[in-house]
Amino acid sequence: MIPALLLGGMGVLFGLGLGLASVKFKVTEDPRLSSIRGALPGANCGGCGYAGCDLFAAAVLSGGAQPGGCPVGGEKTARDIAGVLGVSVCAVEQKKAFVRCLGSDGKCGARYEYYGLRDCKSAAQMAGGGFKNCTYGCLGAGSCQSVCKFGAISISGGIASVDPERCTGCGVCVASCPKNLIAMIPYMNGIHVGCRSKDPSRDVRRICRAGCIGCRLCEKACAYGAVHVRNNLAAIDYGKCVQCGACVAKCPVKCITDEKR
After folding, report:
1. Are residues 81 and 124 in the same domain?
2. Are 182 and 99 in contact (CB under 8 A)?
3. pLDDT tens for residues 172-182?
4. Is 74 among the domain residues?
């Protein structure tokens, strides 16, 4: 009987001690944290550089991240968070992902059959940097598709493509591509160069019917200085591009496209 009473008494004392400790050492959460968390879209995609929305919200509150750091939420989320903190926020440019390769099965062939894992990084470890004739080209094994939480990436004809209407601009897919083919570009611009090859034109013509041949016709056609050819590859300066479409019309291999037309 006595041991039971002793154990019961010790339990009561320990319980009281824990109760007092919880009151004394209680950490009061800043009410702004829940408001910031509520302003976020809840995608937990990692596009902000943090493992999830909770960690990003805490970083914003502590000053470690900016209110406009959520690419999925965009400008609206940035304004809402800035309102909670009582600070101003710069305009947030919405971006989208674009796969810089148009070398589908009918335009760029393969050197050998690949029977390995359906993973681009694994395929890129094979001989020649992969099974495609173009060492720069999309391997189409779907690594980018598997990491996209918004269903914005699909594989068709052996290459990946992005649905701009579904893309939230989180940028998670960028790191998944071993060929560095995915770029984050301004959402409102529809003109893109669908190639990454820097090989001489004679080599590009031999292996791909959609590859940039560095002919400079696009560069000459642009009256705004928005197109430049460097290392046999055309590139768009989105800060100067007015989307007139002159470069698209002049490209003889049609590797410059306008997704809005």
Report:
1. no
2. yes
3. 999 999 999 99
4. yes
